[in-house]
Amino acid sequence: MKNNSTCLIDTLRQRRQKLAELIDFPAVFWSGNSSPRNFPANIFPFRASSHFLYFAGIPLPNAVIRLEAGKLELFTDDPAPGSALWHGEMPNREEIAQIIGADLTYPIAELESKLEGAATIAVQDAATWTQQTQTLGRMVLPQLPPEGLDLELAKAIVALRLTHDAGALTELRKAAAVSVEAHKAGMAATKSAKLEAEVRAAMEGVIIAHNMTTAYSSIVTVHGEVLHNNQYHHPLQPGDLILADVGAETKTGWAADITRTFPVSGKFSSTQRDIYDVVLAAHDACIAKISPGVEYQDIHLLGCITLAEGLVDLGILKGDPEDLVARDVHSVFFPHGIGHLLGLDVHDMEDLGDLSGYEPGRKRSDRFGLGYLRLNRPLRAGMLVTIEPGFYQVPAIINYARSQYKYLIDWERVEQFADVRGIRIEDDVLVTDDGSEVLTVALPTDASSVEDLVNTPVPL
Q1: Residues 6+ apart with CB under 8 A from 334
Q2: What gap in Å lies between CA 269 and CA 267, rounded to an integer?
Q3: Contact present, 330 and 317 (Cβ < 8 Å)
Q4: Rounded to an integer, what distance in angstroms lies between the CA atom of residue 260 and that of residue 245?
């Protein structure tokens, strides 16, 4: 039986070989470096470039790999003589090369002599992409669309990373399992918590205890109508709903992404339960439709129509659900896409823009709501996607829609749901050969089970 180290090297070599089958030029990937917070020695936590991690497997700061014809050359320096005092004994260049299965290794100073004809992808931190530009002798910026060989490399990376190999799925399952436990801990902590921050602490504590980090800034808020709310100071009131969007990331960078919405009191109000069940119906319908060959945009539209049907049944929307969706009326309450790719990045490969999310030849819609769809491709076995329908009462959108959709929305009826600021239900779904597998299925979604989790005492 192979040990973990051998399995890692085998996986990395297979990825490098697959890249070699797609391009006939060298590719160079920088890992990036830590950024200082306020003085040089006080740094933000280091997170290596995902493209570097995909082929190198471990998060090495200030390192570069060069890939050509399936071979990997590692460029990094040995630890400085005094580093052991502050950081402990660290592996040297040759030891790192053995861990990742590098074919050759050099000091970082020798990189410049080996860059002729090489393509790259911009790293996000400013110091590193400045270094990329200077070393390559051409402009490399993350906000610029890639051109020439860089574009060809980006397309090849998308082709590789759209579907996940066995090594990736092992890590993604770990991230999903820890994220499920984090959400359970957050729900259990809610009834005794006084602030959002306490629920967040319970969730992130589980992630830290598993030696993982959060895959993104956690959203734990009673203001679920703020889609990317990163404030945690609000007090918890008995009639509030908490929207918790929290996911773990493994040491090698693989992410999970889960959202649940649950009542602070442990019991949904009748209006909250009505909206929750509408969102859940959309969630379930979309997951049931996932299989190879199905268009992700069709899944999004199915979610929209299911939401519209539910809101018509509740008397919030007026008219035929399909017609309401065609006119974007549903997007007043569901303004974003149904989900996104998930992998090494929580929004996988979105540093490459719509190259990753959109099938060649497709462009984003200019329709409100549909224009925020992050993925517009036919599904393939091995893809991991999120499904995350929601209902939000965003004041700015509501104020605009009152005149725009005066006769298609019953605004008096909407006011009866004032205790529903935002609800989202999100799971991570793997496309399989004959359907799908929900990697986060261990975390219940039905309202009664969610209430039970909130009412479960925190273990002593």
Answers
A1: 303, 304, 307, 369, 389, 390, 391, 392
A2: 6
A3: yes
A4: 7
Residue 3's pLDDT band, with cuts at 50, 70 and 90, is confident
Q: How many CA atoms lie within 13 A of 237 on its CB side?
A: 6
Nearest-angstrom CA–CA distance, 266 and 188:
10
Query: Beta-carbon neighbour count of residue 185 at 10 Å?
Result: 22
* Domain 166-454, CATH number (from 3.30.360.10, 3.90.230.10, 3.30.43.10, 3.90.480.20): 3.90.230.10
Determine phi and psi for 194, rounding to 5 degrees. Answer: -110, -25
Task: Assign 144 a pLDDT band (cuts: 50, 70, 90).
Answer: confident
Burial call 345-368: b when 16+ CB within 10 Å, e when fewer = bbbbbebbeebbbbeeeeeeeeee
Any idea what the Cα angle at residue 103 is, between residues 101 and 105, rounded to 5°? 100
Q: Would the pTM of this model clear 0.90, i.e. be above it?
A: yes
Give the DSSP letter of residue 442.
Answer: T
Q: Which residue has the tokens 């329709």?
A: 367
Q: Residue 74's beta-bridge partner residues?
A: 65, 105
pLDDT at residue number 348: 98
Say whether pLDDT at 201 is over 80.
Answer: yes
Spell out the domain ranges in the chain: 4-161, 166-454
DSSP string computed for 238-300: TT-EEEEEE-EE-TT--B--EEEEEETTSS--HHHHHHHHHHHHHHHHHHHH--TT-BHHHHH
Answer for the pair 259, 422: CB distance below 8 angstroms, yes or no.
Answer: no
3-state helix, strand, coil in the chain (%, to 5): 40, 15, 45
Question: CATH topology of 4-161 equal to that of 166-454?
Answer: no
Beta-bridged to residue 427, according to DSSP, are 387
CA distance 391 to 232: 21
Domain at 4-161: CATH code = 3.40.350.10
